Amino acid sequence: MSIPNTYNATAVEEKWYDYWMKNNYFHSTPNDKEPYTIVIPPPNVTGVLHMGHMLNNTIQDVLIRRARLRGYNACWVPGTDHASIATEAKVVAKLKSEGINKEDLTREEFLKHAWEWTDKHGGIILEQLKKLGASCDWERTRFTMEEDLSKSVTKVFVDLYNKGDIYRGYRMINWDPEAKTTLSDEEVIYEEKQGNFYHINYPIEGADEVVTIATTRPETLLGDTAICINPDDERYTHLKGKKAIVPIANRAIPIIEDAYVDMEFGTGCLKITPAHDPNDKELGEKHNLEVIDIFNDDASLNENGLHYQGKDRFVVRKEITKELEEIGALVKVEQHMHKVGTSERTKAVIEPKISAQWFLRMEEIVKPALDAVLKDEDIKFYPKRYNNTYRHWLENIRDWNISRQLWWGHQIPAFFYGEGVEDFVVATSIEEALPLAQEKTGNATLTLADLKQESDALDTWFSAWLWPISVFNGINEPDNEEINYYYPTNDLVTGPDIIFFWVARMIFSGYEFRNNKPFSNVYFTGIVRDKQRRKMSKSLGNSPDPIELMKQYGADGVRVGLLLSSAAGNDLMFDEELCGQGQKFANKIWNAFKLIKGWKVAQEEAQPETSVVAIKWYKAKFQKTLTEIDANFEQYRLSDSLMSIYKLIWDDFCSWFLEMVKPAFGSPMDAKTYAAVVEILEDNLKILHPFMPHLTEEIWQLITKRTTEEALIIAKYPASTNYDISLITDFDIAKEVISGIRTIRKEKNISFKETIDLSVLNNDDSSKQFDAVIAKMGNLANLTYVTTAVDGALSFRVKSNEYFIPMTGAIDIEAELLKLKEELTYTQGFLKSVQKKLSNERFVNNAPEQVVAAEKKKEADALAKIETLETSINSLN
Asked: Which pLDDT score is estimated for 811?
């Protein structure tokens, strides 16, 4: 079989991915094996692949491929999320570009456009994941708006409502004026921003007096319905029971008292705008104040905004400041740093707004989820530090605002028969709703035409929280074979930025609807950042195109680059050079494979001693590494696992083992050694396959002709066995000896083809089991053991042993002596400087422990080097 000289990643990756798909290796059905299940964090249907997806899905693919090799029935469920806000915004923008306004369409007409857009763009990101090598069970691909999943959402809503956990009420909510929808508290990002404090005079009605109010939002004064003072504030006691005049609006509003007011903050007086501040709303309800809403849904001012009607809030802020100044009501403007709430999706500044919305009570539903993570540890977070984040949110949680003023999404299954806030019934369909409405109203003449379904859709996360259950149809058919087999799932891999939005809520739903956890482990990946620690984003232009990266370095090269950058749970400082390193690693393995395939094999050839011990050593080293890999996987330290494999293959296999067993030039290899080398290569491919699936499958298939039942993707993972640690420690010494020989050869310009002698003063009584390897790799004519130092020889030391290479006649003795003495003088001076530092008590007592340890190591190394130099000088004298 002809082996190409160079590794062609593009051709290989496409070939083997098609082969895996054709032979259905990714598909899983319930059987008698133990399942290993992952559900993908469903990317937005609007999305395209970015570096965060690359990292997240590489990790998931590593986990699922390793589970498959280890004999589990591995099932990785893919899918996409309908992403209400993001998708609706995309569709609205598309329609606008075509001269169509959403407001001119019926809901049905708009949804037709939305489905067309989704059908056209929705599968892009999943197709891109295939380029990465993601071994998802594509037959199981789910979409959060498909029929079964929509039925699940409706059923859950109805069940929770009937239990009293869902309610509708007027509350102060977070309003996104760009998306024109309410948001949950978790979807609001608070950012520290530079703003202003505007000090405004409000005249006191019937008196020649003003009261000064400080506010960050002067435009909201048009909605003021009271001034509030602290009852203990003596400065304002005389104003009790009086009224103030709102500047510009010229409305008289009451001056009220409440201990809520901080006398030390601002002027000690508050303007109360119940429609546009959550704290003001509470005060308004307590004191029975009027509510004046001044904003339209797009945050322009409405008819209550007087002559500012129709203008944007920020435009009004500037203009009203100018008008206040012109009428003499503006006292001063001070700069002020404060937190501003912005939409997690659109980045628009949030407006607090009173609105009738749907809420899910959270007080009881969080309790099992708190215990599962923090008390019983049925669910484990990696890294564990996220337990504290989780605890803080759950212990301070508020009811979840689950309604959104959107058309794209799951329409709330509530049906109104009147205009009142309670004039509705909840049912899975309008047909089921009718008898409920007739019973509630006592009006048997009600018809379907009298009912109107709630126009709001549910928060996207209200379907996403069911994902591990709904993908197996566990809500609609709670006792079906698949949900009973695959649930709970094993691992969830996600970002810490959605620990509240998604992770915690999936845990809520797991215990609420299955009385069981949704997964056993959650691995939080870090955020992908550039070398300047900036988060990668399109706006900054610092994020490479993942598809282009894979074209340049190969998918396997990029996978290695990502994982080598990614310490467990920490942010990833992505460096494209590491993808290049991954590509070089692929080439290194390819060249090693070509070397092996190029060896001629002789059945009658005897196995040399060097091969026997080399094979024993490598198998021991492999088992030691396998133990490290497994331990790191237990803690989701995938980067460390990969690094262990990388060092094993690059250093131990390619640089040492193959050199140890390589036959002499032009000579064949014995069949026994060759079989062992191939077996070792195959084991290497098995442990590397989860990280570099395409390269490893290519080499695996080229080693020998395989059937579809023998493909690497479904091969058996190497078993852990006991190993002789002395083989590893003894060879570590042998490596140092070989390196010492090679250093002297290089320094003295002695050809590696020329044999030399080596004498050993074995002070350590070291093992001799690798002497044959030392002789071969050092190209020694003789290796002998002596009881005294050898005169006229250069020497080096490994531990306490001394190694002598006779050099008389081969070098200029005087010049060598001069060189050795100069090096001795320098080393003695260096030792003196280190010892001076270590004799300084202040340094030893105050310096960090690792710094002192480093200095002590320098001292020990210098002493050993001086001893070796003195031995070499004595031998040449």
From this structure: 59
Instruction: Indicate if 756 and 719 belong to the same structural domain.
Output: no
**C-alpha separations of 690 from 28, 66, 424, 556, 715 in Å:** 18, 6, 54, 10, 12
Q: What is the tens place of the pLDDT at every residue in 288-298?
A: 999 999 999 99
In sequence order, which ranges of 635-724 are alpha helices (DSSP H)?
638-647, 658-661, 671-688, 693-703
- pLDDT for position 82: 94
The answer as to whether 135 is a domain residue is: no
Q: Which residues 6+ apart lie within 8 Å of 731 measured at CB? A: 617, 621, 770, 773
User: Is 130 within 8 Å of 78 (Cβ atoms)?
Assistant: no
Same domain, 713 and 774: no
> What does residue 687 show for φ and ψ, rounded to 5 degrees?
-75, -25
Residue identified by tokens 């990643």 is: 9
Per-residue pLDDT at 1: 58
Q: How far apart are CA 866 and CA 825, in angstroms?
A: 9
Final residue belonging to a domain, choices 306, 323, 352: 352
Question: Are the beta carbons of 226 and 255 closer than 8 angstroms?
Answer: yes
C-beta separation of 351 from 299 below 8 A? yes
* pLDDT for residue 246: 95
Quick count: other Cβ atoms within 10 Å of Cβ 178? 15
- Residue 305 · residue 222 · CB < 8 Å: yes
Residue ranges of the chain whose pLDDT lies below 50: none
766 and 846 in a single domain? The answer is yes
- Those residues whose C-beta lies under 8 Å from the C-beta of residue 686, and which sit 6 or more positions away, are 69, 696, 712, 715, 716, 717, 718
Give a three-class secondary structure readout of 438-461.
HHHHCCCCCCHHHCEECCCEECCH
pLDDT of residue 407: 95
Angle at 34 between CA 28 and CA 40, to 5 degrees: 50
Report the pLDDT value the prediction gives residue 575, as an integer from 0 to 100: 81
**731 in a structural domain:** no
Cα-trace Rg, the chain: 37
Q: What is this structure's pTM?
A: 0.85
State whether the Cα torsion 806-807-809-813 is positive or negative: negative
Apex 179 CA angle, 177 and 184, nearest 5: 85
By residue count, the chain amounts to: 877
708 plus 828 within the same structural domain: no
Give SS3 for 87. helix
Asked if 284 and 223 sit in the same domain, the reply is yes
Residue 324, domain extent: 181-352
- Going by C-alpha positions, the residue among 795, 740, 728 that lies closest to residue 767 is 728
| pLDDT, position 875 | 67
CATH number of 186's domain: 3.90.740.10
